[in-house]
Design brief:
The protein has six helices and 13 strands. The chain is an alpha+beta fold.
Length: about 325
């Protein structure tokens, strides 16, 4: 009797395939931080707290180049942490597999079952990230009347976006940008995009429309309204996944941490309905983290650290003239 071509899947095989399929399909999820993947603190039903270390700030001292008598001054390193809540849910895909499916219809379990389930999970994670950033109020760019988007000459607008984020305290390395389809088309027509190698990115990013403008990796993202932009620093948005435990009563189950995702896979038999159930799931949390702007005063040797909510994320509508963001300290 010929062997069922789907019998080779073990729990470990299935969950590994799922993790890699999800990772390869992520666009937004490929651009954000995973820095707190192992830093969930538990907490109540209201959210998933993570502990964020604020910047450790010191001011260097000077001494005469020929000084061999005075004692050097020792400063103290003080590490301060703050706790922030992420949105937390149990994200899963569960499908029933009838006896006819298992006996007659399934020719490739990976293609027909695991791949659609992976797509369902990654789509859910991308939706949660998109909903979170679209909740950031639309802002203007520049001082005074602001800088406006000119489809014929868009570069100054992106220069102003870059300046605003850098002024908010983010680093140049890690600047990302998602744009709606109309904005990307206007960038193409204006010849504003330069090619960017995506050899090290996910398959989804390699297949997407990606370019480079003013240090931003610019990705066309149809989930955004066509005239909107979300510019952000990678470390300003975080995605966390945590695999639920495999229940002791489950005979076919495994967890994995692979390709940036933590997942659980279960498969069991539902005798009441004479069907198998294929279940992939993860605890997921998404959040926008504050940006900390550090300013040193060398005259009185003080350091001021300002916490900017949404400081590393800008939500823009190229068709609107929105109020310019207030200057820090106003």
């Amino acid at each position: 009797m010929p062997q069922n071509p789907n019998d080779f899947y073990t729990p470990a095989n299935a969950v590994e395939v799922l993790a890699n399929l999800i990772a390869q399909r992520g666009v937004f999820s490929a651009l954000v931080s995973r820095n707190f993947q192992n830093d969930l603190l538990g907490g109540g039903m209201g959210g998933a707290p993570v502990s964020i270390k604020m910047p450790t700030t010191l001011i260097a001292r000077d001494r005469d180049i020929d000084d061999v008598t005075s004692t050097i001054v020792l400063d103290n390193i003080v590490e301060t942490r703050k706790t922030f809540n992420l949105d937390r849910v149990h994200t899963y895909s569960a499908v029933g597999l009838s006896e006819a499916d298992l006996t007659l219809n399934l020719k490739d379990f990976g293609v027909q079952v695991l791949d659609p389930q992976a797509k369902a999970v990654v789509d859910s994670l991308e939706y949660k990230l998109t909903r979170k950033v679209l909740g950031v109020p639309v802002t203007g760019i520049g001082s005074g009347a602001g800088v406006h988007f000119d489809p014929a000459n868009p570069i100054p607008y992106f220069t102003a976006i870059r300046k605003q984020l850098i002024d908010n305290g983010v680093a140049v390395a890690g600047l990302q940008m998602l744009v709606g389809t109309n904005v990307y088309a206007q960038l193409l027509d204006a010849g504003a995009l330069t090619d960017v190698s995506q050899s090290g990115s996910t398959a989804a990013l390699r297949d997407a429309s990606v370019g480079k403008v003013r240090d931003f990796t610019v990705v066309e993202f149809p989930a955004l309204p066509e005239n909107e932009i979300v510019a952000f620093h990678r470390d300003a948005i975080t995605l966390i996944t945590r695999a639920p435990v495999v229940p002791q009563g489950a005979s076919f189950g495994a967890t994995i941490a692979e390709a940036g995702f933590n997942l659980r896979y279960l498969r069991d038999y539902d005798a009441n309905h004479t069907q198998d159930r294929s279940i992939v799931s993860t605890f997921s949390g998404v959040g926008i983290l504050p940006t900390f702007k550090v300013e040193r005063n060398y005259d009185d040797r003080t350091v001021e650290t300002t916490e900017l909510a949404n400081g590393g994320v800008l939500h823009l509508d190229t068709t609107q003239t929105a109020p310019a963001p207030a200057n820090i300290g106003e």
